[in-house]
Structure formats: C-alpha cells, structure tokens
Amino acid sequence: MADQPGLKGKPSSALTALTLPGDTRQTVDVWLQWLRSERRASNHTTENYLVDLYAFFAFIDQHRGGAPTLETLLSLTPRDFRSWLAHRNATDMAKSSTARALSTLRNFYRFLDRTGRGQNAAITTIRNPRQAQSVPKPLTPEDAMAVIDNAGAFQDDPWLAKRNLALFTLLYGCGLRIAEALSLNYDQRPQGTSLVITGKGNKQRLVPVLPVVIEAIDDYLSACPYTQTGQDPLFLGARGKRLIAQVAQREMRRIRALLNLPETATPHAMRHSFATHLLAGGGDLRTIQDLLGHVSLSTTQRYTSVDSERLMAVYRGAHPRAR
C-alpha cells in the first residue's frame, strides 16, 4: 500500500497499516505543508505530530468501526475524545505523551477551522491530563566546574579533549540546549560579546558570551585537524562529521562516573545549572526566560523551586533549631 504522508517509514506498522479515506489523507497533506511553511516546524516536530495524529485515527478506526473521513472527524463528540483519553490511560501512556498528542489534535482542528474545512467545538472541552510538575536537576556550581575541568579526561587525542571542553563550557556559559550547540556552524561561532541562537520553533534569541567560552572554542578550533569554513559544522566528531548528541551524552556519562555524580548529570543539566546559578546570583526571571528561549514564564519559574530547595537545605544545615 502507499506510504502515509511524511511518515518516512518511522512509525509502527500498526499505524502504517491504516488506510485513510481520500479527503482525510488530502487534508493531512495540506496540514503538514502548512506546519512546515507557515509555522516553520522542523521535520522532527512534524513527524511527531503525524505519529500522534495517526495514532488517534487508528483509535477512531476501532472506536467508530472504520477509518475516519473528514465528516467523521468533525462529528466526534466530547465522549469520543474522552474515550480516546481513557484508552491511552488504560495502555499506560505517559501523561506527558498524552498532553502532546492532545496538543496535536487541537492544532489539527484549529487548522480545519481556519481553512474553512469545518469546526468541532468538542475538542475545546477536553482538558489536558494533570501532570506532576518536574523540577530541573542542576549541578552545584562546584560540580559544574568539575565537569568542565574533566571534560577531556577520556580523550587521548588532544583536539578531541579540547572539543569536549569547548562544548561543555558553551553549554554552561550560555545555557544552550545540546541540539542548539551542535547545530552551530563554523560561521556562527561566538566571536564577540553575544551569540544568536535558533531554538525550538526556529525562534531566535540573543545570548551573551563570556570570554572564557570564546577562548575554549578558539583553542579547540586551532587544534582541530580538519579545515572548517563557512557552513561547516562547528563541533566535529573524530571522523570530521558533525558531532551528534549521543557522543556528547556518552562523554557526560563517563565524566559523571568519574566524579560520582547522579544520573541526572547530563548535558542538559548544564543548561539547568546555568539558569539556577543565575537565579541564585540575583538574576530576574524575565531575563533568564529570554536567555533560555522559553515561550512561557511558567517554564522558567520551575527554577525558583530549585533555588527554594537549595535555600531550605542550607537553612536546615545551618540553623541551630533546624537540627
């Protein structure tokens, strides 16, 4: 049978076995084009959306006794949507995964409304599943510096050791996501006092750059045996290709074993540490929100919980009546 639009063979066979009616399939195709052109969604994002949408279609196929036409999708009731949520809950789907899937459905139905294909108010009555608010797991300032000091401990080749040092210094010094750091090209390397970063949703932000970050990257580049110009990757693997996140994560696993750090000590923990240490040093939430590229301030506010826990730990350890 023909492949489903944009799936590239990645979803499970249970999804690719579903044959959609022509009107639904055509609508999904146009929706995908809209996501990529108007919303500037990445391939990774659109593929996740598509997996969520086809999983919903597969449920409706079983629930309603046939693959959904566009008319079927517009006629679904709150009860149908709640049955879908109950099905996900019964199959032990994570609440975070269900929240993302519900967001996908809302996006798809908004698209139907905006493009004149029809409305279904039932989707607006469905609430997100309640999730336990996760608290970031930063390193202490001492542990963060220890990670940087030992960044090249497991590399025999000096240039690879300097690469690791440059990468972890950049993550901690600028608060970048690992994907943001590894997507940088040579001509995007930090050279002045600030750096333009393209984050989630292709949104750009300006982050300040410490001299120590520039020094570490320049030192790595001067030692790198590969010639880099223009849009060549900034961070290279041993064979001269763009460094991948799995390698950085492997290096961090080695370092945390060496330093006896918890499993939460990941490359992303360096970003958490950046934010938490700024907050502890007097940084305001709005500024930290801009530096991290958070759309919502509530996301940044999670770091206040971390700082409060740290203060309480200090209090319990220092106050005579708390012992």
Short description:
It is found in: Cytoplasm. The protein is 57% helix and 3% strand. It is mostly helical and 323 residues long.
SSE inventory with pairings:
Elements: H1 13-16, H2 22-37, H3 43-64, H4 70-75, H5 78-90, H6 95-114, H7 141-149, H8 158-174, H9 178-182, E1 194-198, E2 204-208, H10 211-223, H11 245-259, H12 267-280, H13 285-292, H14 297-300, H15 302-318
Antiparallel strand pairs: 1-2
Helix pairs in contact: 3-6, 7-8, 8-10, 8-12, 12-15
Family: Belongs to the 'phage' integrase family. XerC subfamily.
Active site: 177, 200, 268, 271, 294, 303 (o-(3'-phospho-dna)-tyrosine intermediate)
InterPro entries: CB, DNA_brk_join_enz, Integrase-like_cat_sf, Integrase_catalytic, Integrase_recombinase_N, Integrase_SAM-like_N, Tyrosine_recombinase_XerC/XerD, Tyrosine_recombinase_XerCD
Describe the fold and architecture:
Residues 134-316 form the Tyr recombinase domain. It is a single chain. This protein is mainly alpha-helical and 323 residues long. It has two domains: 13-125, DNA polymerase, domain 1 (Orthogonal Bundle), CATH 1.10.150; 141-320, hpI Integrase, Chain A. 57% of the residues lie in helices and 3% in strands. The chain has 15 helices and two strands. Strands 1-2 form a two-stranded antiparallel sheet. Helix 7 (141-149) runs antiparallel to helix 8, helix 8 packs antiparallel against helix 10 and helix 12 packs across helix 15 (302-318). The longest helix has 22 residues, at 43-64.
